[in-house]
Design brief:
50% of the residues lie in helices and 11% in strands. By secondary structure, it is of the alpha/beta class. Strands 1, 2, 3, 4, 5, 6, 7 and 8 form an 8-stranded mixed β-sheet that branches. This is tRNA(Met) cytidine acetate ligase.
């Protein structure tokens, strides 16, 4: 039986730690095919990816990934549990046999996931705190401390999704080394234009792209966000996905007296609403995503291919008849209804990026682009 390994990534941006992770998977497990499901132009915590999805997919394929599949906007810009469940669903659909993820501490993830599922039935959520804090407290009750361990927490979310669905996917965790590579540090260095710090943390291909491309941030879109909030009524804002009552009034109040995105974030943040939660909410407002549309979009699953090696291309050719959901290698008008929200989100992204992200764009093919 072929060994089809998969993992979840954002590559925001792709750095040397990612390269080590990929090399470690190949050396330890010898997969026949290595697949990454990767967030598109938006990332889980409610930010814009520093490089567009096609460039990040290209870098991943050039550094050892056989196939890159997009995790759409509606499934990416979500709390960790929905993000994880959506990514696992896509990896399951494309046929992985094994999942790999990094972790700050080794644990028996399948056993813990089964305990989490049981505990969730009895856990009483404290609505004065954020989802993240509630989950942290729940895990503490079963002896797991995930504070400041984001990879461990995501790994547990991935494994819980697998256990809930009963997917026949084996789980493997790789201990993260203290190598100093950090996408957060790289993004901070990008903000201060500290290229001397970045050059030692990323492959040459990533470095060249970062130097040549406009790095997109929330500051580029803040005027659009202000316009949207100022011209919408509080009732219209209340319809936005995950807009709880009261935040619509708070946003209307604060947006008129600050011209800085970070200041707006901290003016709205509270014990109950984390910065990531607020960023995601503001992204829904910017893209104009209401509850009804999001719930509908979450049911529309497809496989959007962003890049592949020869091995990945052969795998797709062999398996495409077995896929139960649409396989998209080139977006045309027939995909418009299926990808409606993704296309709208990317059209907003293109207001600053100025490059077509979907129509007519083919996957990156290693050695041919």
């Amino acid at each position: 039986m072929a060994k089809i390994y998969g993992f979840v990534a954002e590559f925001n941006p792709f750095h040397n730690g990612h390269k080590q992770f990929i090399d470690q998977i190949r050396k330890k497990y010898h997969p026949d095919v290595l697949i990454a499901v990767m967030s598109g132009n938006f990332v889980q915590r409610g930010d814009f990816a520093v490089l567009n999805k096609h460039l990040r997919a290209q870098t991943a394929v050039e550094n050892g990934v056989d196939l890159v599949v997009e995790l759409p906007f509606v499934q990416t810009v979500q709390p960790a549990n929905i993000f994880a469940e959506s990514a696992i669903q896509i990896l399951r659909q494309i046929g992985i046999t094994d999942l790999v993820f990094g972790t700050e501490a080794e644990m028996d993830f399948p056993q813990l996931a089964r305990r989490v599922i049981i505990e969730q039935m009895e856990f009483k959520q404290d609505f004065t705190h954020s989802y993240a804090e509630n989950l942290h407290q729940q895990l503490l009750q079963i002896g797991v401390d995930t504070a400041n361990k984001p990879n461990q927490l995501l790994g547990l979310n991935y494994t819980t999704a697998i256990e809930k669905k009963g997917y026949p996917i084996k789980v493997h965790s790789l201990l993260r080394t203290q190598d100093g590579f950090s996408a957060t540090k790289i993004r901070q260095s990008l903000g201060s234009q500290d290229w001397s710090n970045i050059v030692d943390m990323v492959p040459q291909g990533t470095y060249d792209l970062l130097r040549s491309q406009k790095i997109i941030t929330w500051n580029d879109f803040y005027p659009f966000l202000r316009y949207k909030i100022l011209t919408n009524t509080t009732n219209e804002l209340q319809l936005m996905y995950q807009m709880v009552e009261g935040l619509n009034f708070k946003l209307k109040k604060e947006i008129s007296r600050t011209d800085d995105f970070e200041k707006l974030l901290f003016s709205v943040k509270s014990k109950r609403y984390t910065l990531a939660r607020i960023r995601r909410l503001l992204m829904y407002v910017l893209i104009n995503v209401d509850n009804k549309e999001m719930i509908s979009a979450l049911t529309q699953t497809y496989l959007r291919i962003l890049g592949f090696s020869d091995t990945g291309q052969q795998y797709l050719h062999q398996q495409k008849k077995n896929f139960n959901i649409p396989l998209i290698t080139k977006v045309g008008q027939s995909e418009h209804n299926l990808m409606n929200l993704e296309l709208r989100a990317d059209s907003v992204y293109q207001l600053v990026n100025h490059e077509e992200q979907n129509f007519g764009v083919i996957p990156y093919i290693k050695g041919e682009n």
